[in-house]
Amino acid sequence: IDGINLLGRDCGYGEPAVGIRLSAHKAWLESLLLPRRDNATLVHIDTDQELGDECEYADGTKGTCTAEPSCPDINARLQNNQQVIFCGNRNVVCCPNKATDPRMMAIENEFNQCEERYRHLRTDQQNGSSHAVNDRNTTYGCFGYLISTRGVVASASCLSERADLPNIVQIGGIDSLDNSRVVPIEKVIIHPDYKKETLEHNIAIVKLESTVDPSENVFPTCLWQNITHSPTHLKGPKICFSHIGNKRFYDIYQMYQNDCETYLNRSMADSEACMFRKRWTCASYYNPILKEASPK
To answer: What's the pLDDT at 82?
Structure first.
């Protein structure tokens, strides 16, 4: 999965569709999907260390005492609420050589190994698409996509416009409720920089109370992780409205940001992508998937 659709004002008849890149929010997604942390002290000053010394964090991450401006990786530890060690004074930090926090590596490995881990399941199912299936007593108003065994990504706009946040997720059940399962939600996290007026950072994470056991009916989609490049060939759904039985996907392509801004008369954030099809594309507001066209 490369992104989720953000807007498409005329269902693609003559206008390109705008999507939000999930790779641009990878660090935020990882920070939310990490296992719970203890309340260990986050800041420590080691008075015995000085510039150039080797150092090590309690989570096993090894590093070198480096001037703080020369260590951009320290910002990632701060953003992820990880311990930061200062060497002698607050101008020198223990700069990580490589992240080895087992809790961080758990979700990192799940993202990195996704393609290989679910290859046999994805090959059989890649031509299908999801849609909302309602039973008699429950309405599922927002689309979401399983990106880990416990995390679902969805649009913040869809979740936040409802009076009450959802408390359950229905996973699976394409074309039928027979293979679906309902999982309680632990919490819904809206991106802290989401702006309703401009739809910037229109992304949210739904964290499940329990993990999902992957099967041929339910397995995580793989997160496109290249921050600087998007797939040259993507597919988007043909349907403009949620209805059962139509699984066709059309080929879509990415436009240059400048061309898209001129065409739509709106500015484009770095985390957004502009997609088009030669004849028309469908980019409904309920965020259907933007997926790589030829997954291996």
So the answer is: 80
Residue 212's nearest CA partner among 145, 159, 258 is 145
In angstroms, the CA 244 to CA 131 distance is 7
Whole-number pLDDT of residue 93: 92
pTM over 0.70: no
The residue ranges of the chain whose pLDDT is under 50 are 12-13, 37-40, 99-100, 128-136, 237-247, 280-296
Are the beta carbons of 24 and 165 closer than 8 angstroms? Answer: no
> Residue 252 corresponds to which tokens in the numbers above?
């879509």
Any idea where the domains of the chain sit in the sequence? 43-103
| Backbone angle region of 173, left / alpha / beta, with phi > 0 → left and psi within -120 to 50 → alpha | left
- For the chain, the three-class secondary structure string (H helix, E strand, C coil) is CCEEEEECCCCCCCCCEEEEECHHHHHHHHHHHCCCCCCCCCEEEECCCCCCCEEECCCCCEEEEEEHHHCCHHHHHHHCCCCEEEECCCCEEEEECCCCCHHHHHHHHHHHCHHHHCHHHHHHHCCCCCCCCCCCCCCCCCCEEECCCCEEEECHHHHHCCCCCCCEEEECCCCCCCCCEEEEEEEEEECCCCECCCCECCCEEEEECCCCCCCCCCCCCCCCCCCCCCCCCEEEECCCCCCCCCCCEEEEEECCHHHHHHHHCCCCCCCEEEEECCCCCCCCCCCCEEEECCCC
With tokens 């290249």, the residue in question is 226
pLDDT at residue 247, as a whole number: 46
How far CA 169 is from CA of 101, 111, 176, in Å, comes to 30, 21, 15
| β-pairing verdict for 249-254 and 234-237 | antiparallel
